[in-house]
Amino acid sequence: MAILLRFFERGRAHENLGGSGIMNLKRFQLCLVLAVVAVSTATVQAQPLFIDFDNGGNQDGGPHTQAGYQSYIANHEVAAEFTTQNFNAFGTSIAVTPAWPNSTANTVMQMIDRAPGNDANWTGERLDLLTDWIGTDSRTAQGGNGDWDRTAATTPTYMTLSLGGLPEGTYDWLSYHHDTENIWSDFQVEISKDGGASYVFLADKQMTDSTPGGAPDSLRPYVGVDDGAGDNPNPALLPSTFKTSFTVGAADNIVFRFAEYIDGVDPVDTHKLFFAMNGFELTVAGQQLIDGDVNGDRVVTLADFEIIRDHFMMSTTQRTEGDLNFDGVVSWEDFRQWKLNVPGGAPNVANVPEPASLAIACLGLLGLAARRRR
Predict the structure, then answer these.
(1) Architecture of the domain made up of 2-45+288-373
(2) Fewest CB atoms within 10 A around its CB: which of 128, 243, 282, 350?
(3) Number of CB atoms found within 10 A of residue 233's CB
(4) Dist CA 313 CA 362 (whole Å)
């Protein structure tokens, strides 16, 4: 915006020296186009990989793709549809491939989209992300390998996720593991850099659920309300969310491996025998999401406000253009998230104008340019 204003003032000076008002308007329009191109180019080059796993339509009328995410689509238990799918990120094409390497039954291969009755129990953000998930049914009746207690006497039912084509570098991973119905399984995560020939253990996690009941009942539904005890409207802050970092070398071939297990403490029944992942976010290291941080510099400042201001009431699926809550539009909700998270002592925060006032000011500039043209 500051560049636009300086460019515009130079045009006014030109007019005062005898230049054309038409040139003034053309200069303003040219600057506006160049600014849009510059922002678009920067966004493409820095584009992370945000994937939402979506049912293709054989459950609950899917797909329900979360704004700001790319969609991996397959139908529930249709083995032929769980293929390699390619997505634009990091200036290249990334191949995402799920697989179930130690089971051949299609009924193990899950792509579930929960019904509105379950979804209504989640009142927080990004419902389209959480309503559906890819995963594993480990029950023997469905072709799985049964209850895995992580001893030699039992066998896991694995799901792997391969990421092909990643440029060299260090990455941050965040994946979501929440069910708006009743699943709250324990699961372990491993990573391979040699295409699955060997794995390194990363973490144990437990899924969260939203709907009371189940077999067994978790007795702790997470509904998207900040209760100070783990529940939160932002699903990235749920205790089930998994985070890690890894480095990709020139010869590395990244594969994640997930498996549900029984922990010997919780009752063993249907809703402890699935693994589920709603989606994931893969970013260049140090660029994971911070509430209120629009430009990805890891701090919340007036620079983030300026992006919200400049895109206010515009439709977009890009966080880097101000859509902080992924609802597809830069709105008052995004402005409020920024203002809640900007440090109170930041200079000039008290004097920050509402975004709408900037929109009016921009219209005024365009009107002034048009009047000077006449």
Answers:
(1) Orthogonal Bundle (1.10)
(2) 350
(3) 16
(4) 13
Q: ∠ at Cα 65 (60, 69), nearest 5°? A: 160
267: tokens are: 């009752």
Contact status, residue 187 vs residue 241, Cβ threshold 8 Å: no
Ranges of the chain with pLDDT below 70: 1-46, 286-289, 296-298, 317, 344-374
CA dihedral 330, 335, 337, 340 (to 10 degrees): 170
Across the chain, which distance is largest between two alpha carbons, in Å? 90
CA-atom Rg of the chain in angstroms: 24
The packing angle between helices 355-373 and 21-45, to 10°, is 140
Distance between first and last Cα of the chain: 25
Q: What is the pTM of this model?
A: 0.71
As beta bridge partners, residue 243 has 174
52: which 2 tokens? 């939402």
Contact 168, 100 (CB under 8 A): no
By C-alpha distance, which of 236, 242, 207, 223 is closest to 124? 223
